Amino acid sequence: MLASMNLLRPIGALVLALGLVAGCQRGSSRRPASQPSYGQAYPPYGAPQQGAPPQQPGYPQQPGYPQQPGYPPAQTGPVPAPTFNVPTMPGLPVLGDPINDINVSWLQSEAGVVMGALIGALPAASQQKVRGIPFIADPTVGEVNAFAGCDDQRMPFMAITDGLLEVEAQIAQFKATDEIFGTRKLDEFLRMLAQRQRPGQPIVRPPAGFIDPVQHTDPRKVERQRQLYHEQLAFVLGHELGHHHLGHTGCANGQGGSRGVTPADLGRMLSRTLPIFNQPNEIAADVAGVNNLLAAGARQQGYRWTEGGAMLTLGFFASLDQLTPATILFAFEQTHPHPLLRQPVVQQTANTWRMTGGAPVFTFPGFGG
Ligand SMILES: [Zn+2]
């Protein structure tokens, strides 16, 4: 497994620098100007949604919730995230889309863009701890995971495997297809993985034609899958970044990042000789990650990230676990708490974020924040 480690290469500094200014707004040049934009499907925070009854109050004005700093607000039901509105007008087919093509270089560089947006949206004290941190692409075949780690000099780095990037891209495109065309492609993909995926092997790819060719290149599906790809990564990376700026790794102190991650560094992470699993820290990192992604999403000019990507990723791994109860296919399942435990944390954090207008006053008692 570690033989390919010398292929590790940073996708960090340059991409991150771009990410700070570029956010995740991708060009929509393929879409005719007359087409509805997904970016407009979510109204500005607090504004009534398109098509929603005008008397619905915005999230922050929910009556009956006294704001008690330091205590979780009373929960009488979930505060809904904005819903995704499917545009009705199809457009010209999109040829050569990097998610449709599973273009790993593009998937990596977009991860760098998301990382830049997350770091840019952190509170100053947290941002100072992780600014300039290297971000490593790990090509280990069949490895599906993301890491916050320290190198031999106790310098921090972040890493994500190509396998996790590919899985997130596939989830994004099958979910986008399901949302727009009412298919069940994500379920089909899950069953395919459960039957055919083997640990340490390349991620199983559905055959050509798995998605109807017209649906596959539909510009609404292509744009939606990009949103979902970024939104899922924002949670995965926001969580790992949280381990650094919350002090769990102990090596991110604003002294800059690792100047060269060796294969041994990631090997240590993969073999789990570092103490990387700690339930209170995992919950705290989920809370931090959700707050970070929502803050970063609020800065986006088009589509604003919600907790939907987090729920999607966690739902995917929960379903996979249900389908393969006796098998650990991906390391992601081993190094994080069960996704069904994480989903309520994500949802409650996001609800609180909206109720407080983005002030992350809520931490799970006893779990820090
Ligand atoms: Zn974690």
UniProtKB/TrEMBL annotation:
Names of the cofactor(s): Zn(2+)
Compositional bias ranges of the Low complexity kind: 35-68
InterPro entries xref list: Peptidase_M48 (IPR001915)
Note on how the cofactor is bound: Binds 1 zinc ion per subunit.
Gene Ontology BP annotations: proteolysis
Pfam assignment, any one: Peptidase_M48
Family: Belongs to the peptidase M48 family.
Protein name: Peptidase M48 domain-containing protein
